[in-house]
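User: I need a structural model of Cysteine hydrolase from Vreelandella nanhaiensis for a docking pre-check later this week. Nothing fancy, just the predicted structure tokens so I can convert them on my end. Input:
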Amino acid sequence: MQRGMNDPTAGERNNPGAESNIQRLLAGWRNTDWPVVHVRHNSRTPGSPFWPGQPGAEFQPALAPLSHEHVVEKNVPDAFTHSGLERWLNVRGIKQLVIVGVSTSNSVEATARTAGNLGLDTHVVADATFTFAKRDYAGTYRTANEVHAMSLANLEGEYAAIIHTNDALTLLTAFRPYPLQSGEFSAY
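Assistant: Understood. Predicted structure tokens for Cysteine hydrolase:
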């Protein structure tokens, strides 16, 4: 959740309450001392709002990591590719993920697909993610809600469970406490 995601040139988006839901989830995870991983996209394209050192590459203040929270740096949509995230999770025995953020049709979908392919118990929070309107391959304009719904449909079942914020907060009581004992699982 970097500042560049609020750039008006990104176009029409959906889920205007996504940031509030992410804040609720972040507070819930922090209150139960569950591990949290923040992902920062560093663009390889000069002039991008996510180019390192630009204001857009910084985290939104309300969603910024605490000093003890893990930050993954990536430069492709998938948070697992060339980032060390898989190893970080494996070292801690974490097998369950709750994914929030942006954009549903890009980084969220790419990351959830990899997580599912790795055999992780993956949850994507539909109302704590958002995306932008775009034209499909045939040139038909698709609203942000349509793009979002299709991305979630692509993930549902095969790669992840699609849930909502209240469901994710309920998971906090179902997951076992952190730190882990040998062979146990956790979530972030």
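Before docking, keep this in mind: The helical segments are 18-31, 85-92, 104-117, 144-155, 165-174.
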